[in-house]
Amino acid sequence: MKLNRNDLCWCGSQKKYKKCHLQLDEKLEQLKHQGKKIPTHKMIKNEEQIKGIKKAAVVNSGLLDYIEENIKAGMATEEIDIMAKEYTEKHNAVCADYHYCGYPKHICVSINDVVCHGIPCKEEILQEGDIVNVDATTMVDGYYADASRMFIIGKTSKEAEKLVKDTKKALELGIQSIIPYQSCIGDIGKAIETFANANGYSVVREFCGHGVGLAIHEDPYVFHFEPNESTVTIVPGMVFTIEPMLNLGNRDVFVDADDEWTVYTEDGSLSAQWEHTLLVTETGVEILSK
Q1: Could you read off the pLDDT of 175-206 as tens digits, one per residue?
Q2: H or E stretch including 287?
Q3: Rounded Cα distance, 264 and 111, in Å
Q4: Which of 31, 72, 142, 251 is the most buried (most CB within 10 A)?
């Protein structure tokens, strides 16, 4: 149904349409006439929702800061899970991963050839030279933020260190590719894949970035490689993650048959991942959680 200027906006802000999203909708209509694929209204957050997501993002980034200060060789990954639980409780937040689709822990800890979804446990001890991804998703008052960081335990090989740094560079290039009203989601994947291939890495395709904020996973699906399909144009108000996973070997992965969560590289090669939650603004991108 087409809204009149003085109707309440579709976004739920309780503001009049003319003072809220009318101008954005007019721009979206122009993009549509240009043959571009436009995002649905569900992909666009209002001011109140963005405020709530930012609040969750502060706690989420703070949690990763706390882990960064304490992670070390000789530590069981279970200790990282306990840190996540205690930190979020202290800040009136919830680890959104806990029991999500049956996931048994509060955070994901993925070491060396584990691509993602590594389950913390008492038996797994961090060793000198390990590269470790810690992936945190935090919920505050019904709003979500999601980010992950790589940590190098002590000294590692030059090859592993370069993989960690280059994967972060791939994420940064994905972010830099975003020009509101001009870029599409596929441009992010193209930027990441081009850089990865040029530096001899493969890009995992089974897992992707995603919309986030009102739920852990929302549309759009954010590719880390150039897709063979049209993707939505990126516009202000969209909130999503970019989280490339690069492998030293080939891109093939498999899920552990026993725990049905832990994802490994098929060839046993090292894998790295960085993830930020991003807000698209009129002028560019704001990093909310990293």
Answers
A1: 999 999 999 999 999 999 999 999 999 999 99
A2: strand 285-289
A3: 10
A4: 251
